[in-house]
Design brief:
Layout (H helix, E strand, L loop, with lengths): L3 E4 L8 H15 L4 E3 L6 E5 L3 H11 L8 E3 L3 H7 L5 H10 L4 E6 L6 H4 L4 E5 L4 H10 L3 E2 L14 H8 L5 E4 L10 E4 L5 E5 L5 H8 L2 E3 L27 E5 L7 H7 L7 E7 L18 E7 L3 H17 L4 E5 L7 H11 L11
Parallel strand pairs: 1-8, 2-8, 4-6, 5-9, 10-11, 12-15, 13-14, 13-15
Antiparallel strand pairs: 2-3, 3-7, 4-7, 5-6, 9-10
Helix pairs in contact: 1-6
């Protein structure tokens, strides 16, 4: 299979080339094919959510197990109403506050949603993306799109079209290239039907924001004993995902100092070490290279330590960059858990979890 690269220019609403790219993507989707599309979070791999055969192509391309449900993307309230059977009051409040945007809601599915999308579960994960290209593509296609992240199952999520091609070139029909994504981490996944509401995956819409709009909410706490994958209640709760090829080592920084990074880097003398290095740490070298790092250390400028939104935006790009530089170990500081820091910590925890053959996907 040849993967088409459909490029969107900055003036895509008027440029003939961009309109043609959208038309091609629509034709592929309505014909049962797969298109990687930009959202405000990461790139997603889309197919017609109402067509089981099209949905199956997502699982095949990503090498994704069928027990892991997909997120359905809609473009407007009318389309949303066709994929869900019931919307509780809390969900209505959250939709008014955060849609279009990076919030996925688990709601009772309608009869038109096939089992392949929800892995047979009674709830469907659904959101309305804020990216204008994604919204326009869904609107033109006239169908809800199932779209997990556009990467091989368990790998680092893609925030550019180039990242998509690194994993899926020759495995999907097309990628719609509209530049880098904005948030850089996947959407928040929330079940508003429980009391308190349950956040299964932290994301760009924070726990604090959810509570302020719709009341009590808590993070999902996985049982201490291992679960069978088929029993997982939602997308986003498996043990391992987002993983680079290199071993990812989380580093808790004391007093915001880079000293621990220096110490940990020295513990891998025979391996090529990469460092996700934020600015604004005490004793951090400036400029980035050179500095008092072991020879051969690769540094990725992660962004300001005091700006967690920027850290989230650059997280997956940094992991992919250090992988591409041949790093065998990646050291990454762990930010505070407040706000979007909870999403970053979630991704780092899952990316560093030992590979036991069980993954999860965004």
């Amino acid at each position: 299979m040849q993967t088409l690269i459909l490029r969107m220019g900055p003036d895509w609403t008027t440029a003939d080339e961009s309109r043609k790219a959208l038309d091609q993507a629509v034709a592929i989707l309505r014909g049962g094919g797969t298109v990687a599309l930009p959202t405000e979070t990461v790139y997603g791999l889309a197919a017609n959510a109402l067509d089981p055969q099209a949905v199956a192509k997502i699982f095949t391309a990503k090498q994704r197990p069928t027990w892991d449900p997909l997120i359905v993307h809609v473009s407007d309230p009318d389309m949303f109403a066709t994929v869900v059977a019931e919307v509780p009051e809390e969900a209505k409040q959250l939709i008014a506050a955060f849609w279009p945007g990076p919030l996925t809601l688990l709601l009772p599915r309608s009869a038109i949603i096939p089992d392949e999308v929800t892995a047979g579960r009674p709830l469907v994960a659904v959101r309305m993306p804020a990216h204008p290209v994604a919204l326009e593509l869904i609107r033109r296609a006239g169908i809800p799109l199932a779209a997990p992240s556009a990467n091989r199952f368990g790998h680092t999520s893609p925030t550019t079209a180039a990242h998509v091609l690194d994993d899926l070139e020759g495995r999907i029909d097309a990628v719609l290239d509209a530049g880098p994504t904005a948030f850089g981490v996947e959407s928040t996944v929330l079940d508003p039907c429980q009391s308190p509401m349950i956040v299964y995956r932290p994301g760009a819409v924070t726990l604090e924001q959810i509570r302020a709009v719709a009341g009590p909410a808590e993070f999902f706490i996985a049982p201490a004993s291992a679960q069978q994958p088929a029993a997982l209640p939602s997308p986003g709760v498996g043990l391992r995902h987002y993983a680079p090829r290199a071993e990812l080592v989380q580093v808790d920084l004391a007093n915001g100092s880079a000293a621990q990074l220096h110490e940990r880097a020295a513990q891998f003398p025979s391996q090529r070490v990469g460092i996700m290095l934020p600015s604004g740490l005490l004793n951090s070298p400036s400029p980035w290279p050179p500095g008092p790092w072991p020879p051969g250390t690769e540094i990725f400028d992660w962004g300001p330590w005091a700006d967690p939104e920027e850290l989230a935006h650059r997280l997956f790009a940094g992991l992919r960059h250090l992988d591409a530089r041949g790093c065998q170990v990646i050291l990454c500081p762990v930010p505070p858990e407040q706000g979007i820091g909870a999403a970053i910590r979630d991704r780092l925890r899952k990316a560093s979890f030992p590979d036991s053959g069980s993954s999860e996907e965004g």
